[in-house]
């Protein structure tokens, strides 16, 4: 078939179509990023109500809001479970450790753990969309409560890549889409991440916003890339009970549907998913 006939059968996307595609993708990404803003306010409400001790959450919130007791309790369970697993990992005998927080948003775990003296010989790397990490860096750069907890923050060398917002020996902040594995892996190498060191990868209500294929690819990429890794997943389940139906409708309404919740609706289905994708023990 000639080049011309091939072009006729498969016409190139016009500039107008490209703009529409990018605009649609941008709207979806913005909606997902908006869940970060809502989540950090809820976490702040939970901490202010005395459920969980984290004085750094409020540093990322310009305007607080009081959530219902049900929301506070839900976020308390979430915060406590993740805090327990992070501290368990940090207390292991390994000399050098790494934590990769996938879709970190405005999470304050690094600052909380650092203030407690638990970040020692640890690389803590946070990853999210570019817009989110730029906003987070702006907060950190103008807040001495936060930047004083990052050794070497004011003596960093120039950025090796525009997607790297912060790159100190201890704390990294990267702006990259988690589905872009090659770019992500290249950035991690630039930042000095060692793929053979003990590594905890944290996904806190992140993969559920991806398609089944994309989210499973992230898990498989992590398993194949890190030779000594722990993957901590905290995600919504039980989509078909009364609360699950309400929750799904809420996220659809705000434009950030839970794309994976029906593919992996239970704890058992999540366990089976990991067992199919990785060759390590799954709990």
From TrEMBL:
<dbReference type="GO" id="GO:0008175">
    <property type="term" value="F:tRNA methyltransferase activity"/>
</dbReference>
<dbReference type="InterPro" id="IPR007213">
    <property type="entry name" value="Ppm1/Ppm2/Tcmp"/>
</dbReference>
<keyword id="KW-0808">Transferase</keyword>
<dbReference type="GO" id="GO:0031591">
    <property type="term" value="P:wybutosine biosynthetic process"/>
</dbReference>
<protein>
    <recommendedName>
        <fullName>Leucine carboxyl methyltransferase 1</fullName>
        <ecNumber>2.1.1.233</ecNumber>
    </recommendedName>
</protein>
<feature type="binding site">
    <location>
        <position position="204"/>
    </location>
    <ligand>
        <name>S-adenosyl-L-methionine</name>
    </ligand>
</feature>
<comment type="function">
    <text>Methylates the carboxyl group of the C-terminal leucine residue of protein phosphatase 2A catalytic subunits to form alpha-leucine ester residues.</text>
</comment>
<dbReference type="GO" id="GO:0030488">
    <property type="term" value="P:tRNA methylation"/>
</dbReference>
<dbReference type="InterPro" id="IPR029063">
    <property type="entry name" value="SAM-dependent_MTases_sf"/>
</dbReference>
<keyword id="KW-0012">Acyltransferase</keyword>
<dbReference type="GO" id="GO:0018423">
    <property type="term" value="F:protein C-terminal leucine carboxyl O-methyltransferase activity"/>
</dbReference>
<feature type="binding site">
    <location>
        <begin position="177"/>
        <end position="178"/>
    </location>
    <ligand>
        <name>S-adenosyl-L-methionine</name>
    </ligand>
</feature>
<dbReference type="GO" id="GO:0016746">
    <property type="term" value="F:acyltransferase activity"/>
</dbReference>
<dbReference type="InterPro" id="IPR016651">
    <property type="entry name" value="LCMT1"/>
</dbReference>
<keyword id="KW-0489">Methyltransferase</keyword>
<dbReference type="Pfam" id="PF04072">
    <property type="entry name" value="LCM"/>
</dbReference>
<feature type="binding site">
    <location>
        <position position="78"/>
    </location>
    <ligand>
        <name>S-adenosyl-L-methionine</name>
    </ligand>
</feature>
<keyword id="KW-0949">S-adenosyl-L-methionine</keyword>
<comment type="similarity">
    <text>Belongs to the methyltransferase superfamily. LCMT family.</text>
</comment>
<feature type="binding site">
    <location>
        <position position="103"/>
    </location>
    <ligand>
        <name>S-adenosyl-L-methionine</name>
    </ligand>
</feature>
């Amino acid at each position: 078939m000639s080049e011309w006939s091939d072009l006729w059968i498969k016409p190139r996307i016009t500039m107008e179509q490209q703009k529409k595609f990018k605009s649609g993708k941008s709207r979806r990404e913005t909606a997902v990023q908006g869940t970060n803003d809502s989540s950090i306010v809820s976490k702040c409400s939970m901490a202010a109500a005395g459920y969980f001790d984290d004085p750094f959450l409020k540093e990322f919130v310009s305007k607080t809001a009081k959530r219902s007791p049900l929301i506070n309790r839900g976020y308390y369970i979430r915060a406590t479970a993740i805090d327990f697993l992070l501290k368990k990992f940090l207390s292991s005998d390994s000399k050098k450790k790494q934590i990769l927080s996938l879709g970190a948003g405005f999470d304050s775990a690094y600052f909380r753990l650092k203030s407690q003296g638990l970040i020692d010989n640890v690389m803590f790397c946070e990853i999210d969309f570019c817009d989110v990490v730029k906003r987070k860096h702006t907060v950190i750069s103008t807040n001495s409560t936060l930047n004083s907890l990052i050794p070497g923050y004011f003596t960093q060398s120039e950025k090796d890549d525009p997607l790297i917002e912060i790159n100190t020996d201890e704390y990294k902040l990267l702006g990259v889409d988690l589905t872009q594995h090659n770019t992500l892996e290249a950035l991690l190498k630039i930042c000095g991440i060692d793929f053979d060191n003990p590594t905890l990868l944290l996904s806190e209500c992140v993969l559920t916003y991806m398609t089944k294929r994309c989210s499973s690819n992230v898990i498989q990429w992590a398993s194949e890339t890190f030779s000594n890794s722990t993957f901590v997943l905290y995600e919504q389940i039980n989509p078909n009970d009364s609360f699950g139906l309400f929750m799904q409708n809420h996220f659809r309404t705000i434009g950030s549907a839970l794309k994976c919740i029906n593919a992996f609706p239970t704890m058992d289905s999540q366990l089976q998913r990991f067992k199919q994708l990785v060759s390590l023990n799954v709990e």
